[in-house]
Amino acid sequence: MNLPFEPQRQTQDYQASDAAHHIHAFVDQKALNAEGPRVMVRGEGLYLWDSEGKRYLDGMSGLWCTQLGYGRKDLTAAAAAQMDQLAYYNMFFHTTHPAVIELSELLFSLLPGHYSHVIYTNSGSEANEVLIRTVRRYWQVLGQPQKKVMIGRWNGYHGSTLAASALGGMKFMHEMGGLIPDVAHIDEPYWYAQGGELTPAEFGRRCALQLEEKILELGAQNVAGFIAEPFQGAGGMIFPPQSYWPEIQRICRQYDVLLCADEVIGGFGRTGEWFAHQHFGFEPDTLSIAKGLTSGYLPMGGLVLSKRMAEALVERGGVFAHGLTYSGHPVAAAVALANLKALRDEGIVRQVKDDTGPYLHKLLHDVFGSHPLIGEIQGTGLLAALQFAEDKDTRKRFANENDLAWQCRTFGFEAGVIIRSTLGRMIMAPALVASRAELDELVDKTRIAVDRTARIAGKL
Ligand code: PXG
Known about the structure:
The protein is of the alpha/beta class and 460 residues long. It has 2 domains: 38-71 and 347-456, Aspartate Aminotransferase, domain 1, CATH 3.90.1150.10; 74-345, 3-Layer(aba) Sandwich (Aspartate Aminotransferase, domain 2). The chain has helices at residues 11-21, 29-35, 61-64, 73-86, 98-110, 124-141, 162-167, 171-175, 191-194, 200-218, 244-254, 276-280, 307-316, 330-345, 348-368, 401-415, 436-456; strands spanning 40-44, 47-50, 55-58, 115-121, 149-153, 183-186, 223-228, 258-262, 286-289, 301-306, 374-379, 384-388, 417-418, 420-422, 425-428. The strands form 3 sheets. A 7-stranded mixed sheet has the order 4-10-9-8-7-5-6, sandwiched between helices. α4 (73-86) runs antiparallel to α14, α10 runs parallel beside α11 (244-254) and α15 (348-368) runs parallel beside α17. It is globular and about 60 Å long. 3-[O-phosphonopyridoxyl]--amino-benzoic acid is lined by residues 63, 123-125, 128, 157-159, 229, 233-234, 262, 264-265, 290, 301, 420. The site of 3-[O-phosphonopyridoxyl]--amino-benzoic acid (PXG) has 17 residues, from α6.
């Protein structure tokens, strides 16, 4: 392999150089420099190897994105061939290219029929940046320019750029310069933590009704759209109660507020449906996509628009002053095309729905259903969360749940599995190509980590 970097340096050498030059994501950099990051050097299928030669089963698909796993030669071949043929061209000044044309054809063959157009970006954050401008532009074109407020949810995550972090509901991000005007938030539908004495159904309905209250408070004539993840990802892999989405959809339609689904994590087969809104049974006006679009092999995202919106923007909108140098990048588009073909032609999404998804959830219920540390198991398809509970009867959470979950994640690494911790929840989202044997290993090793955590929490 002709890699442009030295293949085998010492771990400490890597770490020292990294500490000297690199600011990492969402971390106290000084603390990380003292500890030294793990250096990942290779991936194959569901497995990763670090610079010490230790192997891990990646239970998180990188960051919820490597649907096909690592090392897929069809994707690397697609990238190399496209680079040889046409490494770069753009969507400006009246040009396009075959890779992006075929990608769009395939994308819309997989989507429900009421979507027709996409604006490509390089990431999920950018998709949500574009979303705000597109939604506002849509209302301008319809003669309602005052309709520009976006409503998001507390503890929602829509990315890390300025407007995307404002749409999101991570208060600590808002406090670090992440707010913009004309954005409001309502509560998240996290029944386990916030449902109190209410049934999940009643709590889900009440959370949804907050949207109606917020719209009435702001004036429906001022509200452009409501954005939410069909299930929260970074916020803890939280599934809303079943009563939630039908009520949200009713409210959006009643007040003429666009319903914007952030499918960055939920899209491309994660739930066993192609898109997570199909699992929950609602019909958004826009879809923000990224991650699984290319299985993470190259950066690419996009904003998918309904026919109704696209028709207004295309037929009546004139120039939309928006574009990115790399929108619809040919190499990313070629990789996305190869990725979506593989997901479709190898029946991978169907396999998640009919076989590996149910298999994983049965296994999790068998192993953790009456585990002393676990109060709730959520998820569907190749997506699951385990909720830590100090008292399962009252749904009391540990005061130090964040530390416990981080500890559990570390125990996971020691056991050779990568799982994600958020507050008091452990999350799994393995590659969609996972076999039953790999899911067995994922759950076995997670069990080791959870048992060790239960011991330090005094539960075992
Ligand atoms: N929307 C959602 C729903 C996301 O989960 C983004 C937008 C932003 O995408 P980009 O490509 O700009 O990162 C995301 C990203 C985690 C984690 O640890 C989750 C994300 C990113 C990094 C870490 O759960 N999601």
